[in-house]
Design goal:
This protein is an alpha/beta fold. It is built from 13 helices and twelve strands. Strands 1-9-8-5-4-2-3 form a seven-stranded mixed beta sheet, with helices on both faces. The radius of gyration is 22 Å and the shape is globular.
Length: 427
């Protein structure tokens, strides 16, 4: 039964009065660009994940670029990453003049450690694993490979705010230089698990790497605007590097301060909704559900990407998404693999970059709406509609029930918009 509104968008932000009041406070303060609110977000995020240093930036892309540049990676170097990612991951590698090398994925959508090992050459300098959809990569094996070959590791954690790997939050970089990742880059884009509208943050345990990234972040000058124009600052500055304009503003940080406070709550709701989708779609042979996290890990459920079993269906992915749209449900695809984009064809088509698992998975991927601003009625409607469509277009001749009623455990105060199913549509 359709919820009490006309459509379910792919995403709606969860912005409350706390964020609005903090933004207003920033506007009234007269300090809009990088300043005390940005510094506060950096400090609170580093405390949350357990990292010595955190640098707020205007995007995860900027964080990746800064980390590569600060490590001195450039022309003639190779950086290994995944084909199942947004183009920004590969663009950052190309921005420093390095060559991207694609390692194939495993069945869970994350980069394969075995494929990484097979792509290493004498020119390899770094590995950029991506925690696809919020599911942590097999970091231990990636770190082991990196140590063996003397490589740097930069995690693309755009989907992984709130993800846990082996008991520690992603971003909790190891302070021992011989283990762990060198840098972890998060996204706070509008659709992410916490948002600053646009923005991100990079964590590291390496003080020299942090200092270099901070210098490059704002034109390579020796003092940022807060130090230069605050009461305790000085007008004098010097340019030490050819830097970038990657700083985060206090207006954006004002959102992030309160989004961070709600991140655990958001993650709990996402997990509950992902579980509900699993209940509604279990035992449906026409679909494969996304992998869940191993014991000791936590999936942040930034995305809920199902895999259509096309050999069991009479329609393709495009027709399936269109049928969802006609029923008021906005779905998407994550991602169009890097080798399928015209710009990347010259290197992605090389024999050493072949990624058959990623290319075979792509036609099957459909990402369903999943975010805290959804109601339980909406989650039920999406899951039930997906189930009905799969059965409707199944190649199986046998009868299969198209509706099931399962109780939803109460989220209590975490989700004040909770509704009891079924919900009657408004007249």
């Amino acid at each position: 039964m359709m919820p009490d509104h006309k459509s379910i968008p792919f995403h709606r932000p969860s912005i409350g009065d706390d964020e609005i009041e903090e933004v207003l406070d920033t506007l009234r303060s007269g300090w809009l660009t990088t300043g005390p609110k940005t510094a506060r977000l950096e400090q609170e995020f580093s405390s949350y994940v357990g990292a010595p240093f955190a640098l707020a930036v205007n995007s995860c892309t900027a964080g990746l670029h800064l980390a590569l540049a600060a490590m001195g990676i450039g022309r003639g170097d190779e950086v290994i990453t995944t084909p199942l990612t947004f183009c920004a991951t590969v663009n950052a590698i190309m921005h420093v003049g390095a060559t991207p090398v694609l390692a194939d994925i495993g069945l869970n959508g994350n980069i394969s450690p075995n494929s990484i090992e097979s792509r290493i050459t004498p020119r390899t300098r770094a590995i950029i694993p991506v925690h696809f959809a919020g599911l942590p990569c097999d970091l231990s094996r990636i770190w082991e490979t990196a140590r063996k070959h003397g490589l740097r590791v930069i995690e693309d954690a755009a989907h992984a705010s709130g993800t846990i790997y082996r008991g520690s939050l992603i971003g909790s970089v190891n302070q021992e230089p011989s283990s762990g990742s060198d840098a972890v880059c998060f996204s706070f884009y509008a659709t992410k698990n916490m948002t600053t509208a646009e923005g991100g943050i990079t964590t590291t345990a390496d003080p020299s790497l942090y200092d270099k990234m901070k210098l490059l972040c704002l034109h390579g000058i020796s003092r940022d605007a807060w130090n230069r124009y605050s009461g305790s600052g000085s007008w004098f500055y010097q340019v030490h590097e050819c830097g970038f304009k990657y700083n985060l503003s206090d207006l954006q940080a004002s959102l992030g301060i309160h989004q961070l406070k709600k991140l655990e709550q958001f993650t709990m709701i996402r997990t509950r909704y992902a579980t509900r989708y699993g209940e509604l779609l279990r035992n449906v042979e026409e679909v494969e559900l996304p992998r869940t996290a191993a014991q000791g890990d936590r999936h942040a459920w930034h995305l809920y990407s199902i895999r259509l079993n096309l050999e069991r269906l009479c329609i393709d992915r495009a027709m399936f998404i269109e049928e969802l749209r006609s029923r008021g449900i906005a779905a998407s695809v994550h991602f169009i693999p890097i080798p399928m984009h015209p710009f990347f064809e010259p290197f992605a088509g090389l024999p050493q970059n072949q990624c058959p698992t990623a290319l075979a998975l792509y036609p099957r991927l459909v990402t369903l709406p999943l975010y805290p601003a959804m109601t339980e009625a909406e989650v039920d409607y999406v899951g039930t509609t997906v189930r009905k469509l799969l059965i409707k277009h199944s190649r199986r001749p046998t009868f299969f029930p198209t509706h099931i009623d399962l109780p939803i455990p109460s989220i209590g105060r975490l989700n004040p918009r909770r509704r009891i199913m079924p919900v009657q549509p408004r007249s």
